[in-house]
Amino acid sequence: MTTFEAILLTIVTASTPLLIAALGELVAERSGVLNLGVEGMMAMGAACSFAAAVTFDSTLLGVGAGILAGALMASLFALVVLGFAANQVGSGLALTIFGLGLSGLIGAPFVGARRDPVAHIDIPGLSDIPVIGRLFFEQDLFVYASIALTILVAIYLTRTRSGLTLRSIGENHTSANALGLPVWRVRFWAILFGGACAGLAGAYLALVYTRFWSPGMTAGRGWIALALVVFAAWRPGWLLVGAYIFGAATVLQLHAQAAQFGVPPQVLSAVPYLATILALLLLSLRHGRAIGAPGSLGVPFVPDR
Amino acid sequence: MRFELTPRPNVSPVMRALAPVAAFITAFLIAGLVIWLMGRSPAAAFDVYVLQPLSDPWSLQELVVKATPLALIAIGLSYCFRANLWNIGAEGQYVIGAVLGSWLALKTHGTEAGLWVLPLMLLLGIIGGALWGLIPAFLKTRFGVNEILTSLMLVYVAQLVLDYLVRGPWRDPKGFNFPQSVTFDPSATLHPIFEGGRVHFGALFALIAVLATAVILGRTLFGYRLKLTGDAPRAARFAGFSSKSTTMAVFAISGGLAGLAGITEVSGQIGQLQPSISPGYGFTAITVAFLGRLNPIGILIAALVVALTFIGGESAQILLKLPLDLTQAFQGILLLCVLAGDALVSYRIRFVTRGGGK
Amino acid sequence: MKADVSSSGPPLVELKGISKRYGDLLANDGIDLSIEPGEIHALLGENGAGKSTLVKILYGVIEPSAGEIRWEGRPVSIGSPVEARNLGLGMVFQHFSLFDELTVAENIAVALSGDWDLATVRGKLGEISRTYGLALDADRAVWTLSAGERQRIEIVRCLLQNPRLLILDEPTSVLTPQEAEHLFTTLDRLSAEGCSILYISHKLEEVRRLCRRATILRAGRVVATIDPRASSAREIAALMVGSEVGEIRTDAPHHPEGEMLKVASLNLPPAGMHGQSLRDIDLTARAGEVVGIAGIAGNGQTELFAALSGERLAGGPDAVVIAGRPVGTTGIDGRRRLGAAFVPEERLGHAAAPTHRLSENTLISHAAAEVSRSGFILVNAARRLARTIVQSFDVRTPEGDPQARKLSGGNLQKFVIGREIIRKPKLIVVDQPTWGVDAGAARLIRQALVDLARQGSAVVVVSQDLDELFEVADRMAVIHQGTLSPLKPIGEWTKEAVGLEMLGVAQASGGVHAV
């Protein structure tokens, strides 16, 4: 494998957790709920999945635990923002603070442990194609799953009745309520899906990407996923593109650090964060405002009497 | 079964004041449950977290020391949150304030520079924080970029700036390669209020900020401007208050106060720059601001209460081997409880069960 | 005879003793109402009489506190709009329940029960459109459509489910006279096919045109059930209002002089993605006169108001001249200081902050009122001002200095208009002065505006209510898609001419304002 191929491979690995987490958030936001707790849910997913995988020596159980942890965190959020109509920005922030702290507690006994690499799936024939063969057809299962999930979410949103209901609720919850659409129920499941995806993304980070646990290992990826949703104008297809651009930026700055161009490593480490700001800026420059944002995004729903 | 939320026609001030207290108790119960689940004694934890710090004079001073940056930052954030603007990057503004202020301390290090150094350092701290805060404000007002994400991203950038400086150009050459600057000269150090005490003049700044803010928010047109912008943005525009200048102003104020908190902490507490100069004050201050109901006096009380969890957390780590992360988890749960409590004050929640008909 | 009221069998729907209580307020108080198959039944009442509450109960949006609903003689409980639709109810909301970013077909599909796919919906949509002459493009996004077209979506959405009872809440408030007539034809036809219609309105003429039975609500109670054709408009109005509402006095001598407002070739790009741009607006208002701007909602009234008030600035200073001073690039504060005053359409959230007390709400026009000094609020002065407004304009408040949201629509409107009138502005611009306001308050507001003009101020009234404009205006123009028709004395306008201008037809035929 050439260095070039290796870099391409790591780009895919770095992009996948961003894509998965952002997909979940995208669905939640299309239903009109802004959950800023992605970072916290992701951290919990990482800690719980790693703890379970080490304890039971099973990647599968680890992944299950990560998804469950994310979903549980999300249901806490759902209780507060749906049940109590609490402020979504503040509650999401609280969820992140809580998740980062609790994940530290859960992960503490597992600092220093390591997991073996997850098996890659080789699609015979196709994976022999030079360069792109290994890139596209010899990845781990999560990569294929994330692509499939993107397509499924896209189909769900545009082609199914339930997806239309979800979009309508996100667009205008007052009208939706007047028509008798189940605003709370749909939002609850959308939030839960968002949490499960964030948990899965965290599991991927801990079990595949780094293969160890350290506190704060999500390193702002949850926030980047949130920015990606804006960047993608709430469209799953663009999310795929965005996630891969960001994954590439992350990986390339790591390689640049290794190559020691004489640039301080901190400057390169700042690249993903600065790139996020730049991406949001460019998007605003092009459209003048956040285009495609669901109409009721972030507005607490209290039915009129 | 389904929920029904109905706005309460009248909310008594007593209820409004009691909601954060109830939230605090709820958060405590949840934390106790977590500790119990971890196989520790919640009673012992309560003793270490709350009772011991409150019964020890040294800890009481420490309480004020920890509450100082929290109160300063949270007071600043209350300007933003009242106007419904989400500056969640106070941690970064704190760091940049500390960095810019420290620049002068390091420049004048070993010289005969006199009394002017410290005030100028504080001023630079305020300017540094304000400028860092103005970046997301500018991006929002000029280009419509969401301030939540940009202000947060700039936290990471600020921390990397600090990291670069203390490992690179500002590292103490005689520091055995430790990533830290030289220790500040006395002329660049914020002194304790009482000889031999721990509480430094930063606490006074926090008190001044509280009192000034109480007047500004309650009695001036500017305070009304923030309230109106937050409660009814169209009415604010109708009143002739430009939302752009409001945004710039509150980000400058909150950034400035966070920067002031940063430089007072470094010059009054730590005495030098190092890679980590905050146990997350900038984020915890968000909890403090809401726990204090965005009211200056409330924030002062909330800062002291939350400072307790920091001190308790440190001693719990030593005495009970409970990880420091527990404090952070508690602060997150506390914020959730406070926000849910706010909603419970404004709405009556009913569970409706539907019988018959089918 | 298309609707035989005396037909045998139980009524289609019967409401018995329906009550709804909100805290101290009894929005509906023991309402009885029955609708026969094929009948067009009117529900008449003033704003705040309880009409909307009653139909929301019938449509399952809210639960009644007491009472019974019978459908074809059987008692039913309607727990949600879905259950209502399954029963055979269809509802056209006053504030449409549409989704701006979705297409027409999607808007219809999302409200349908049962199995469907978008292709089927498109097909059925075409069918219904042709049958009833309700033209709609299935793939257009809703935000691109006019109010009339949006209402068509709501109607088609109901018709696709073959409703037995169609409820329309103030359906003509957003239509031109011509569009309204088209709607009436459709309704007559539906009724002839056996569909019952509950028609909610406060406009007597329409009710007399359509209905043979009308139930009149006042303060949450049924005061009478009558044949609107057999009673005079005066009698019905008296039943609705409870007492006679006097005419407003406009008889004072009227010699307009001195241009207080001059707008010349004002152009303004749309504010948001879905906004309306303003093109070459020319307008003048002289001291002593009331100038009316008619038009259907969404034709640029909001933008025109923003441009006059200074909430949005024009390209150059000369586009707007107030009291002889070019102010096109001056903000709202500067215009207030020149003696201008403004009252926007939205009471809650724009003219007043809902959760703020009335005294705090006086601070909104702080630039021209004596409620602050060098940046500090004069709390006592603000309280005094609020009290004076409350007394001078008969604002009924639940307590001394209540939050704005606790006032009824009419009382809050009296307050926000009073807040501006009380300082005797040289120019006042009011957008929809009596929208959603009860008759008593509406009369007081109109009188106050006319009186202000007679005392030498220039008054500009933007309104969708043609009757109102014919009552108060001295000169009038019509706004259509961001352009303004010529300003003509009120005597030279007929309702038909206004209707044509509203549709933009007059421009094509006359070409009068190719300026």
Q: What secondary-structure arrangement, pairings included, does this model have?
A:
The complex is a heterotrimer of chains A (305), B (358) and C (515).
Chain A: H1 3-30, H2 38-56, H3 59-83, H4 88-107, E1 120-122, H5 132-137, E2 138-140, H6 141-159, H7 161-171, H8 173-178, H9 183-209, H10 221-231, H11 236-259, H12 265-269, H13 271-287
Antiparallel strand pairs in A: 1-2
Helix pairs in contact in A: 1-6, 1-9, 1-10, 1-11, 2-3, 2-4, 2-9, 2-10, 3-4, 3-9, 6-7, 6-11, 10-11, 10-13, 11-13
Chain B: E1 2-7, H1 13-37, H2 42-54, H3 57-82, H4 90-107, H5 117-143, H6 147-167, H7 202-219, H8 221-231, H9 233-238, H10 243-270, H11 281-291, H12 296-319, H13 325-346, E2 347-352
Antiparallel strand pairs in B: 1-2
Chain C: E1 13-22, E2 25-35, E3 40-45, H1 51-58, E4 66-71, E5 74-76, H2 81-87, E6 89-92, H3 104-109, H4 118-132, H5 147-159, E7 165-169, H6 177-192, E8 196-201, H7 204-210, E9 213-218, E10 221-226, H8 233-241, E11 257-268, E12 278-287, E13 290-294, H9 301-309, E14 320-322, E15 325-326, H10 332-337, E16 340-343, H11 358-361, E17 372-373, E18 376-377, H12 379-392, H13 409-421, E19 427-431, H14 439-454, E20 458-463, H15 466-472, E21 475-480, E22 483-484, E23 488-489, H16 495-503, H17 505-510
Parallel strand pairs in C: 3-8, 3-9, 6-7, 7-8, 13-20, 13-21, 16-19, 19-20
Antiparallel strand pairs in C: 1-2, 1-4, 4-5, 9-10, 11-12, 11-14, 14-15, 17-18, 21-22, 21-23
Task: Report Rg of chain B.
Answer: 22 Å
Per DSSP E runs of 2 or more residues, the count of β-strands of chain B stands at 2
Helices and strands of chain B: which structural class? mainly alpha
Mean pLDDT of chain C: 87
> Briefly, what CATH class of the largest domain in chain C?
Alpha Beta
| Biggest pleated sheet of chain B | 2 strands, antiparallel
Specify the oligomeric state: heterotrimer
**Count of separate structural domains of chain C:** 2
Share of helical residues of chain B:
55-70%
- Amino-to-carboxy terminus distance of chain B: 14 Å
CATH superfamily of the largest domain in chain C: P-loop containing nucleotide triphosphate hydrolases
Q: Given the structure, what is the number of helices of chain B? A: 13
What share of the residues of chain C lie within helices? 25-40%
Q: Rg of chain C from C-alpha positions?
A: 24 Å
**Estimated structural class of chain C:** alpha/beta
Tell me what the CATH architecture of chain B is: Orthogonal Bundle
Strand order of the largest sheet of chain B: 1-2
Please report the distance between the alpha carbons of the first and last residues of chain C. Answer: 52 Å
* Count of distinct strands of chain C: 23
Which class of chain B in CATH terms?
A: Mainly Alpha
